[in-house]
Structure formats: C-alpha cells, structure tokens
Amino acid sequence: MASCRRRWRRAAAVVSLAIALPGCVTGHLFAAGRRREYAREMDAPVEEGGARVLRYTAEVTDDAGASCGTVVRTVRLAPDQPIPTRRELTRVRTAAWVYPLVPLSLAADGFMVPTLTVLSPVMLIMGD
Amino acid sequence: MDRALRSAVAALFCVAAFGCGPARLPADAPPLRAFRFATDTFAWVNDSHWVLVPDPASGTLVWTPQDVRFALHCAGVVRAARQFLVHARFDPTAARVEPEGYLALARSVLARDPRATRATEPPIVIPGYRDLRTFSADFEPMLKEELLADWRSVVPRGDWRIVVPFTPGMQASIARTLFGEVRAGTPVIARVFRFPVMTINHAVLLFGATEDAGDLVFEAYDPNDASGPITIRFDIAAETFLFPARNYFTGGPVQVYEVYRGLLS
Predict the structure, then answer these.
(1) d(C-alpha A64, C-alpha B155), whole Å
(2) B106 near B139, Cβ under 8 Å?
(3) Is the peptide bond before B196 cis (omega within 30 degrees of 0)?
(4) Where are the domains of chain B?
(5) Residue B263 pLDDT > 90
(6) Do A31 and B240 touch (CB under 8 A)?
C-alpha cells in the first residue's frame, strides 16, 4: 500500500516537472503556432460609434519568417492618442489551433522530459 | 548514503544554475583588450558543404554541394579566435621560431580554458607576428589540422539547449543580456539556429553592440566570412533575432543563446 502511494507520488512529481519545465513537445507546439504580424498598409483613422478607429493590413509570418498571408486589423484610438507607427502595431501571438493540442503535448512531455534529462549528461560529458 | 547523494545532486544543480565560475582573477589582471575584426580573426574561413548559388535558368537561389574539407567547425573557429584574444599576445619584434615551435604555441593557446573571458595566467607569446590574421595566414594548414583534430568542438556541450524551446520573451531577455555583456567588453560566442527544421545551425562571435531605432544591433565575426563583420539585429517589437542572408542561409528570424560560458553552456 505504502509503495503504491510512493509510486503515485513519483508519477505526480514527474508530471508536475514536465508541466513546470518548458517541455520540448509543448514548447515546439507553441513555436509552430507562433505568428508575428507586421503592419504594412494603414488607412486614415475613421470615426466609428463615437471612437476613432484605425484599420490596417498586417503581414503574418510564422516563427521562421515564412509568410502566412495578410490580415486586416482594427485598433480603437483614444481621443487624443497619436496614430501609432507601423512598428508599434507589430504583434506576436499564438494561433488558436495550438490550445486544443496542449493536453496531448503535455502528456508527451511527461515521457520526453525525463528521457532528455537522463540523456543530457552524455552531451555534457562529451561536449566541448 | 542517500543524504550524501542528495547533497551531491544539490551541489550539481547549484553549479548548473550559477554557471561554472571562472578561475579567480589576479588583482592586477589587465582588462581584456577590444576585439578588432581586422586583426583578431582568422585569415581563412570555415566552409559549408552546401551553399546557395543563383540558378542561371530561374534566377532563384539553389543549394549546391561543395567539396570542402574544413567544414562544420564554426564553433571551433570562433572559440579559437577568442582563446587567442584572451590567452595570447603577439610580439612582432621578437625573432620568429621554427614551425614546430608555432605548433606548440598554438596547442598551448587552444588548451587554455575556452570559457575564460579574462586572462588568468600570463599570456602565451607568439613571436614574429603582429596579430592572429597574419599568423593564421602563414599557418593555415597547421591550424586547420589542429581544429579538425579537436572533434569535441563540433559538439559544444551547450548544444543540448537547442532542443528545449525558447519563448519570444526568453529571446528578449537573452538579447538584453548579450547586449550588456558585449557593451562591457566581453566577446560572446553565440549559437545561432532554427529548430526543429534546422535551416541554420551556426556559431558566431559577438563583439560590438549598438541600439538602432529601438532595436539591439550586434556586430559579429562570422567564421564563414573573413572579409568583414556581419550585423545581427534583435527586433524588439517582434521579439526575434534577425540573421542576414549569407551563402548558407536565406536570412530571417533565428534563435540565439550564449555558448562557452559556464558549466552547462
């Protein structure tokens, strides 16, 4: 009975460690879904519903810089807010399809992280 | 026994967390002189087995194989360049020695701590040459053979970090740290890569840093190019490093971290 409880505690510790660390599978999942948006064309601000709204077209790239197309974005500006520069409109976000896959990736990390932790000393001993 | 083991593991983690402290500096240790590209780099380059060349038919860049022997040693070359900067002193007024003497001197330099960024021992004097550029031009085959023989430099121990992902915030933190180190006069050896699709896996030596339009701009010694330094930019807004187009890389976002610093890197 006691040994069974110990085993469960160990398993819980391994899973907690996998979640706490920037796990390889989970981290690479987020990296695959990372998107950067760079404002390319900006319209003049217009009044909409009593607020100034800026509409702009942004180029979307993935984490390696490959183009994923364009998207039209709007931002509401405060009454006395200057028009933001293109650079200020740069955004880093995560694609929505990443989140449903996170439970799977955490489960995979539960196996991967301990394995890599065991293998890493080989690199540390052999490496320059 | 269990307690002793736990203490050993705790000690290992402490060392890992804080890095392998450099040997204690003598009180009168001189500051490291500034790295100068024209004199502190090798006269030759680390080659690539594959290079991008324009396709005459389409005009696009295509990968072409090269028959080269001295390749895959980018980390070894920048490591050696920093070892010569930290651990050697060139004396052009001293009489030259036989090639065997230079081989012994080069081996002594390369045997010194590659992680040291300040001299902890008296420098190894290279007589008859004014700098690494002229010395390496005269002894290209010998130095290349020495670097090729050092197979471990193909696998710097810090390479384990490549597989563990970096977030944009972590890259921003690394950029600020590297910027501070380089501005303080420490040449930094940096791993430059993409993962898991490894379109680049390279090492450079960062020796200059400035701010430009809010971005952090690094001047770097690319061991694959002896003609001049390259510029690596950290885009603060997009939180990513941008590596220039080279004949081995099309240019664009990369991930960067420091190697040859501390126990785990």
Answers:
(1) 24
(2) yes
(3) yes
(4) 25-154, 157-259
(5) no
(6) no
Of B165, B214, B253, the CB nearest to A65: B253
CB contact under 8 Å between A123 and B252, yes or no, is no
**Stretches in chain A below the pLDDT threshold 70:** 1-3, 11, 13-23
* Beta strand pairing call for A34-42 and A46-48: unpaired
| Residue-wise pLDDT tens digits, B107-161 | 999 999 999 999 989 999 999 999 999 999 999 999 999 999 988 778 888 888 8
pLDDT tens digits, one per residue of B69-95: 999 999 999 999 999 999 999 999 999
Q: What's the CA dihedral at B249, B190, B166, B162 to 10 degrees?
A: 80
Q: What is the pLDDT of residue A19?
A: 53
| Domains identified in chain A, total number | 1
Written as six digits, the tokens of B200 are 């680049």
pLDDT > 70? residue B3: no
Distance of alpha carbon B74 from alpha carbon B222, whole angstroms:
8
- The tokens describing A36, both together, are 């950067």
The count of residues in chain A is: 128
Q: What pTM was computed for the model?
A: 0.84
Q: How many CB pairs below 8 A link A and B?
A: 73
Contact B214/A87, CB-based, under 8 Å? yes
Which tokens belong to A112?
Answer: 């991967």
Q: Do A123 and B155 touch (CB under 8 A)?
A: yes
Give tens-digit pLDDT for B239-257.
Answer: 999 999 999 999 999 999 9
Chain B residue with minimum CA distance to A30? B167
CA distance, residue B247 to nearest chain A CA (Å): 18
- Closest residue, chain A, to B170 (C-alpha): A22
- Is residue B12 over pLDDT 50? no
B85 in Cβ contact with B39 (< 8 Å): no
Contacts of B238 in chain A (CB under 8 A): 36, 38, 90, 92
Query: Which range of residues forms the domain containing residue A111?
Result: 2-126
Mean pLDDT estimate for chain B: 89
